[in-house]
Amino acid sequence: MSDSVNSSKTSSNLSENRMKFPHLRQDFAASLVVFLVALPLCVGVAVASGVPAELGLVTGIVGGLVTGFLPGSSLQVSGPAAGLTVLVFEAVREFGLPVLGVLVLATGLIQVLMGALKLGRYFRAISVAVVEGMLAGIGLVLIAGQLYSVAGMEAPASGLAKLGGLPAMLADAAGSAEALASLGLGAGTIAVLVLWRRLPKRVRTVPGPLAAVALATLVTLVFALPVATVEVQGLLGSLQPPGMDAFGELGNVAVLGTVAAFVLIASAESLFSAAAVDRLHDGPRTEYDKELMAQGAGNTVCGMLGALPMTAVIVRSSANVQAGARTKASRVMHGAWLLLFAVLLPAALAYIPLPALAGILVHAGWKLIPLREIAAMWREHRGEALILVVTAVSIVAVNMFEGVLIGLGLAIAKTAWEASHIKLEVIDKGAGPVQAYLSGNATFLRLPKILDNLESLPQDRPVELDMSGLHHLDHACRTALENWAERHSATEPVKVTTP
């Protein structure tokens, strides 16, 4: 009798849990997939950023357990991103690792404030060409820098030096057995990532980055390859909360510029990723201001722990959706799996070869370069394609922050040029009044051209000026046109049709 009662209670509890968490099975399975995708990427981004590998895991954990709980985008997954690798590496090299926490903390607080002020939606107004140019520039610098790591060598400081030094690096590697072994392992990792999509679906249940790192680790152990592996410090030993001395660096203009770059890039990448993820599922749409606040909360926690900055990551987010996730529970659980790994199996990181992680980031950098989008833009909007290319080249030639500013400046200049576009059509039948039609936007930027064309009309003929086709007529143009009409009317009348 008691067994039947207990059995009925158990079944009742199960049914209640199913009602409370109707998608638990799908979310649990998806969380494991996202964990397996995130693990090698978290470690790889940390190593490429010049910080302990465990700090990448810390950011992934915070992205799951903190940002994952908060409202905004239900299926988007956050963590350390390849898109910030170059900027973080430069910041750590210039200001030191203790200041990284201050940079990330300030970034998070600004993001929270911007979300509270409902500025998140305005990030969607940033020119797509600038954002894609920014990612392309990051991808080029990332590829160039990580190719040195693939060969087990140290990369030069600037983007141009990285690209220019590649031939010499390959020549030096050809004469070193260790460098050749490292290059072979990195190239094999990239080959696995490229070919993984062509394998049967059952095989592809294992994420490509995890499979590539696992195979590279196995090859390294079996053949005792002379390649560098990840240095392990332990989770608690890696945490470096910023001290008061580090906060004093906020008076440095260069530090504030880096914070501004963090805010711009992390926010834009997260919100553009949210828009892309929304197109992958039919669930609730992203609330952009809340998502910006969630990203800010995560970065605030990461800053207090001295970890890497976070963004939403499209690779993990798309894997989450494709694995069947239905609610935010999947991303929260993926953070829990990362925490368990960091606590229970940190020593496993020591077996991962650095060339394999560099190969993963070379592949990630290549995917940041929007080759198809550039070709499509060139066919349809050459001005936008030019902005994209100039932004990317500027980031490589100068630095991240100034490159993005150059791209934004070009986008604004292009918009101002197009906004002031105006057309004057003149019909002269040889007799009777000369007909002039103005259309477009009459602004002071095009005033000299408008007046030159009008003043070139015959002075001994009446003129019919039709301005009904204008979308905009600013005060400067209106005044100048009235003065021209008055002067012309002194000899022949001018009939004006106002917009």
From TrEMBL:
<dbReference type="InterPro" id="IPR001902">
    <property type="entry name" value="SLC26A/SulP_fam"/>
</dbReference>
<dbReference type="Pfam" id="PF00916">
    <property type="entry name" value="Sulfate_transp"/>
</dbReference>
<feature type="domain" description="SLC26A/SulP transporter">
    <location>
        <begin position="24"/>
        <end position="391"/>
    </location>
</feature>
<keyword id="KW-1133">Transmembrane helix</keyword>
<dbReference type="GO" id="GO:0016020">
    <property type="term" value="C:membrane"/>
</dbReference>
<protein>
    <submittedName>
        <fullName>SulP family inorganic anion transporter</fullName>
    </submittedName>
</protein>
<feature type="transmembrane region" description="Helical">
    <location>
        <begin position="28"/>
        <end position="48"/>
    </location>
</feature>
<feature type="transmembrane region" description="Helical">
    <location>
        <begin position="95"/>
        <end position="117"/>
    </location>
</feature>
<feature type="transmembrane region" description="Helical">
    <location>
        <begin position="208"/>
        <end position="230"/>
    </location>
</feature>
<feature type="transmembrane region" description="Helical">
    <location>
        <begin position="173"/>
        <end position="196"/>
    </location>
</feature>
<feature type="transmembrane region" description="Helical">
    <location>
        <begin position="386"/>
        <end position="413"/>
    </location>
</feature>
<feature type="transmembrane region" description="Helical">
    <location>
        <begin position="250"/>
        <end position="272"/>
    </location>
</feature>
<feature type="transmembrane region" description="Helical">
    <location>
        <begin position="55"/>
        <end position="75"/>
    </location>
</feature>
<feature type="transmembrane region" description="Helical">
    <location>
        <begin position="129"/>
        <end position="153"/>
    </location>
</feature>
<feature type="transmembrane region" description="Helical">
    <location>
        <begin position="336"/>
        <end position="366"/>
    </location>
</feature>
<dbReference type="GO" id="GO:0055085">
    <property type="term" value="P:transmembrane transport"/>
</dbReference>
<dbReference type="InterPro" id="IPR011547">
    <property type="entry name" value="SLC26A/SulP_dom"/>
</dbReference>
<keyword id="KW-0472">Membrane</keyword>
<keyword id="KW-0812">Transmembrane</keyword>
